[in-house]
Amino acid sequence: MINFLKDFLRCFLNFRYWSYFTLINIKIKYRDSIIGPFWNVISSTILVLALSFGYLSFLNPENFKNFIYYIALGIFIWIFISNSINEGTSILEKKKNIILEKNTNIKFFIYELIFSNFIIYLHSFVVIFILLIISDISITSYFLLSTIGLFIILINLIFLINMVMILSPVFKDIKKIVENILLIIFFLTPLIWNEEIMKPKLKFLLNFNPFYHLISIFRDPLLNKINEQYFFHLGISLLITFCIIIISYVINKKYEKIVRLYL
Predict the structure, then answer these.
(1) How many Å apart are CA 168 and CA 181, to the nearest integer?
(2) Which of these, 115, 113, 126, 119, lies nearest to 42 by C-alpha position?
(3) I want to staple 121 with a disulfide (CB 3.0 to 4.6 A). Which of 80, 90, 138, 214 is the partner?
């Protein structure tokens, strides 16, 4: 386990290597586009607006500007998470030539993938900031706690992607399974709806959704919702992180050495 974690740390500390290739790939991907990654932000913003106005008939107009900010926080972070995990299922196939020709540590590709999607995600902060100004939410010191939530999300992403990245070449159905699971989780997580609309008898079911806790520890501070529930989410998120690392270690130990045979 210690060597497993040290391997991830060594790859991370080689920041110049994977960040360089990430920036090169982004430039190549958007070289013929005028606004580049902002196309992703525009499409996501259209989705946020469409969902918000779709719910307008059910909401108090006075709460609409807060609700659209709430949806934006959830949708943008979810797109970052889901895109990273989905792309993780095919990353080894895309890097096949590099892996077979060179003795490259495949964990570099995890950081490259996350960093690439994170750069695109950062572009959405423009929209989020505008919606924050429009809303009734005040900027407070609580906002700093969202960085803790984001850090925990990133840690989970690293080890989740390691799992799906290694399993996908060995088990060809993993890609479709991951896509369908993420689609189901999208609707079961309070992203485009508020948990407050749930009946108390059913609300406890949310606690069995790990993404609910992870997104809450990032989003709640940005909504100034720091209470006992937040610390409950934080505790569960840390437990989830520990479990993900253990599962990732087991999968890594069993399949990493043979994964090249399936490429």
Answers:
(1) 15
(2) 126
(3) 80
